[in-house]
Amino acid sequence: MSARSATSLRSVVCRAALGLAIVAMLVAPAAARGLRRLHVDALSMRADRTRLEVHQVFHLSIHTHVRERVVALDEIVVPDVGTMLLEGDERRVTQNAGGTDVVETLTLEPVASGTYTFKSAYLDAIDARTGKPSRFSSNPVTVVVGDAVAGLAYPSAAAILRALLGAVFAVLAIVAAVVVVVVVLKNRRRREPAVVTAPQSVPAAPPPPRTSRDAVAEALRAYRSAPANGSLTALRASLFEAAGRNAGATLRDALAATSDRELRAALTAAEHAAFGPAHARDAASAELIGATEAWLR
């Protein structure tokens, strides 16, 4: 290749590189102009159940808090749910003096056992702190779905071994108890000279059937003493059953199933406590306890 040809080739390459750089400089600001300027203080994701059975419905909630007062955050991108059935997508927007909280709740139903990891939900915006386009991401969430026949989900071989050993020890304890009872009965028969017929006792009346109010009252006592996620889930489930729906139903289904105003208020309060913003948990918990006590009276 001659020196003139090499020089011409280098000139073409330089002009092409310069053109690409100019295009990149023009496209980047244009893309950034489509993003909103936001102070994103929180973006998190959680599931109300992390161990469940096949076809057992659960909820995946994405909570976002921004300092601005906005009507909606359509920029939030929820994770792909894969093979799970999406049975509902509910979004709640709450504005207050500190800004706006957006909670999007997906109602999901697994159709096969296994370990499922939901990738982070994310939001693209202009970071109001730095003035630069940024991507804000939540934490990933992992749920373990067990076999519907077995009804259990074991995270490891060690857990399975512990469960088997527990079952073996339980069987041995039952066998030992039966042996002790047999020996005691044999010794008693040897000591008794004659058999005395005892008068027939009148069978005790069966206890009254357990009502849905009894179940709610019991769950409320447990939640009041220890207001954790487990007791909150149990109280919410008992309120749904009192309304005639199982725990896997949505709030809309439960409200449609009952006309009891006080029960509807308790159902709404339970939803706020379970899926509301973290900074309002104490107030939502007090609202739930008060609404449930009002329904039980």
Summed up, what is this model?
This protein is of the alpha+beta class. Helices cover 44% and strands 23% of the residues. Residues 148-154 have low confidence and may be disordered.
Topology:
Layout: H1 3-32, E1 37-38, E2 40-47, E3 51-53, E4 58-66, E5 85-96, E6 99-109, E7 114-118, E8 122-127, E9 133-137, E10 141-146, H2 157-191, H3 212-225, H4 229-242, H5 251-256, H6 261-275, H7 281-296
Parallel strand pairs: 1-8, 3-10
Antiparallel strand pairs: 2-4, 4-6, 5-6, 7-10, 8-9
Helix pairs in contact: 3-4, 3-7, 4-6, 6-7
Explain what this protein looks like in three dimensions.
- The protein has helices at 3-32, 157-191, 212-225, 229-242, 251-256, 261-275, 281-296; strands at residues 37-38, 40-47, 51-53, 58-66, 85-96, 99-109, 114-118, 122-127, 133-137, 141-146.
- It is an alpha+beta fold and 297 residues long.
- Strand 5 and strand 6 form a beta hairpin.
